[in-house]
């Protein structure tokens, strides 16, 4: 393209047809003396730098996959789970295998993406992936095993659901038991590793749809909005309606919301909520020792947790 033979409008039109901006093309625009072209250059320069930053971010996230691909490992699966924190609904895990050499802009920890962006990225992931597996641990399994082991179960099921057998697993912050495949664990891997982040997106969008479906089965709790997390609206619904079959009854907070703790516990909680200084918190702890034996073990655990959180805020 001979830029000087084109009008500014024609240059803009060509750019709309070809979204790729290269450094070479930017240099050609930079040398054009026309004022309008200079404005186009400044706009494209910002876009180019933004795209370059994104490419570098994705390349950094792909570091471990590339090492494995170069070593001859073809089927590398990223695995992640979502739904550990909610008061209701299953925990969901996903496992993703990408073809060697895959790059996909926009991949990130699902928690950093808004719902619209997550859905868009889900579609993009499914278009390029070699395999996707999804696994669930239901509420009764969460209550029986505890949430940590239920999450591991969901992750194992996600790996087993893959239509091909992976040769290596990349996992967010844990090792999956009873799986013989080599595994590498990454602390906060959904924010630093490409395949794990992609798995978090698939797991999150899948779980969100499940919670929206459960809203129709158990109306009144607002599952479609809060997805089972302990928002004030959800807490009020539990107090008003009581728990439903998809609430995690092994979570002490559910029993607390239902009024199953002692009067002393609620009185202490009310006192603790009003404390706004270190001195007052120390005084509360001294008085708490005198009545500690009157609290049930589960209430003691809850008070310890609330105290720890309160010390971080006063």
The strand count comes to 5
- The overall pLDDT, averaged over residues, is 90
Into how many domains do the coordinates divide?
Answer: 3
CATH topology of the largest domain: Nucleotidyltransferase, domain 5
Q: Quick one: CATH class of the largest domain?
A: Alpha Beta
| H/E topology pattern | HHHHEEHEHHEEHHHHHHHH
Radius of gyration: 26 Å
Helix content: 55-70%
Sheet with most strands: strand arrangement: 3-2-1-4-5
Overall shape: it is: globular
The CATH superfamily of the largest domain appears as Ribonuclease H-like superfamily/Ribonuclease H
Kindly estimate the percentage of residues that lie in beta strands according to DSSP.
5-15%
From the coordinates shown, what is the CATH architecture of the largest domain? 2-Layer Sandwich
Look at the helices and sheets and give the structural class: alpha/beta
First and last CA, distance: 64 Å
Give a quick account of the main beta sheet: strands, pairing sense, barrel closure. 5 strands, mixed
Which stretches of 5+ consecutive residues score pLDDT under 50? none
Q: How many helix segments?
A: 15
Write up what this structure looks like.
The chain is of the alpha/beta class and 314 residues long. It folds into three domains: 3-59, no CATH class; 63-212, 2-Layer Sandwich (Nucleotidyltransferase, domain 5); 263-313. The chain has 15 helices and five strands. Strands 3-2-1-4-5 form a five-stranded mixed sheet.
């Amino acid at each position: 393209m001979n830029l000087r033979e084109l009008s500014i409008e024609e240059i803009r039109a060509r750019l709309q047809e070809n979204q790729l901006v290269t450094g070479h093309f930017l240099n050609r625009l930079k040398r054009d003396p026309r004022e309008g072209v200079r404005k186009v250059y400044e706009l494209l320069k910002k876009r180019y730098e933004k795209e370059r930053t994104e490419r570098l971010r994705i390349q950094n996230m792909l570091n471990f996959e590339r090492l494995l691909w170069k070593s001859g490992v073809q089927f590398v699966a990223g695995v992640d789970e979502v739904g550990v924190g909610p008061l209701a609904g299953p925990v969901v895990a996903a496992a993703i295998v990408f073809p060697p050499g895959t790059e996909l802009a926009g991949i990130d920890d699902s928690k950093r993406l808004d719902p619209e962006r997550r859905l868009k990225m889900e579609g993009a992931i499914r278009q390029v992936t070699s395999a996707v597996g999804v696994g669930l641990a239901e509420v009764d399994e969460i209550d029986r095993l505890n949430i940590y082991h239920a999450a591991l179960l969901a992750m194992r099921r996600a790996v087993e659901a893959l239509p091909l057998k992976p040769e290596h697993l990349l996992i967010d912050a844990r090792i999956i038991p009873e799986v013989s495949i080599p595994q590498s664990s990454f602390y906060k891997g959904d924010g630093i590793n490409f395949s794990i982040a992609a798995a978090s997106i698939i797991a999150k969008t899948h779980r969100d749809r499940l919670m929206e479906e459960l809203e129709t089965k158990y109306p009144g709790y607002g599952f479609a909005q809060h997805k089972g997390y302990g928002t004030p609206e959800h807490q009020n619904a539990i107090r008003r309606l009581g728990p439903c079959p998809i609430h995690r009854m092994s979570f002490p907070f559910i029993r607390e919301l239902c009024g199953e703790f002692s009067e002393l516990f609620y009185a202490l909680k009310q006192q603790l909520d009003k404390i706004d200084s270190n001195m007052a918190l120390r005084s509360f702890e001294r008085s708490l020792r005198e009545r500690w034996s009157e609290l049930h073990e589960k209430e003691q655990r809850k008070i310890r947790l609330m105290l720890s959180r309160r010390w971080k805020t006063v």
